[in-house]
Amino acid sequence: MKRSLVSIAILGLLTSVAQAQEVVKIGVAAPLTGSQAHLGKDIENGARLAIEEYNAKGVTLAGKKVKFELQAEDDQADPRTATTVAQRLADSGVKGVVGHLNSGASIPASRIYNDASLPQVSPASTNPKLTQQGFKATFRTIANDVQQGLSIGKYAATKLGKKIAIIDDRTAYGQGLADEVEKAVKANGGTVTGREFTSDKATDFQAILTRVKAQNPDVIVYSGMDSQGGPMLKQIKQLGLNTKFITGDGGCTSEIIKLAGDAISANAYCTQPGLPLEQMPGGKDFNARYSKRFNAPVQIYAPYAYDATSALIEAMKAANSAEPAKYTAQLGKVNFPGVIGTVAFDAKGDIKDGAVTVYQLKAGKWEPLP
């Protein structure tokens, strides 16, 4: 009889604890399959690490211990799929979303999140339009293309050569960045010899590069992702184009080096929003924790995804609630030391003081330039 009463008491206690703990789901949306999956997984892993570490520390909201769970969705880097994913996340009851990777996915998805009053923090989408729509719950932890395009165009025109050909992949990211590059090239005394475009699924660039070769540029700027940049570099070499090459953050990866093989050289440059991982205030420690947890190197976006997830949770803590209607206002007010530096947003939702770093290929790796 005593044993039975003890069992009932323990069962009651466990039930009470379970009832007291609230599960809060946070969504992450990125390409988890296809040619950009390595970047999408980087975002998912960054968000997952943040959630696991907050759960380990323990978070209490409105008197209840909270357990955060991640709901990862594959947007396939496709605008239409991204809207389907966004609606699925909104319908499933997530309390905030970290994503998307591609601006072409983030922008249409942001309208669905806005209609659902669901906060979205992108760790990677850089097109300025994302935060120019007037949505109160749309943020990003990465510098935008105005800042990055200015850096690429200025560096190309003042350091690499005056005649510059621009190729983009016609996505919202690629075209938006290329537009800013063109403005910056002209503002810094350079000449745009031509604008060409491909797609984010293409692998054959012979026709485009033949036209570019006839322009005799000093520099080729490619505005797109590493999955196209690598094959493009191979074909640049095959056609005998003796030109410098610079690309933005979508191509500033170890993957482009792998894809290009011996076609990539010290004449290759790239940019990334933010500081190099080793120069980020929390970068060294984050890299160690990330590598230990996932047995893989950081690609690019994991620190930004970690800080995006942290921003959502810090806002919830400030509001003492995980309900978007209660914590969204606090999201615009967050100010905390993140991996990337101080995480705080301006009135539009852009990260404040977004830095951009230029890299050059040296000894088979991207090395930051002073």
Automatic annotation (TrEMBL):
* A Pfam family per the record: Peripla_BP_6
Spell out the InterPro entries in the cross-references. Answer: Leu-bd, Peripla_BP_I
Residues of the Leucine-binding protein domain: 24-364
**Keywords, sorted A to Z:** Signal
As given in the record, the signal peptide range reads 1-20
PANTHER family tied to this protein:
AMINO ACID BINDING PROTEIN, LEU/ILE/VAL-BINDING ABC TRANSPORTER SUBUNIT
Q: Which family does it belong to?
A: Belongs to the leucine-binding protein family.
Q: What is this protein called?
A: Amino acid/amide ABC transporter substrate-binding protein, HAAT family
Q: List the source organism.
A: Giesbergeria anulus
Which taxonomic lineage is given here? Answer: Bacteria, Pseudomonadati, Pseudomonadota, Betaproteobacteria, Burkholderiales
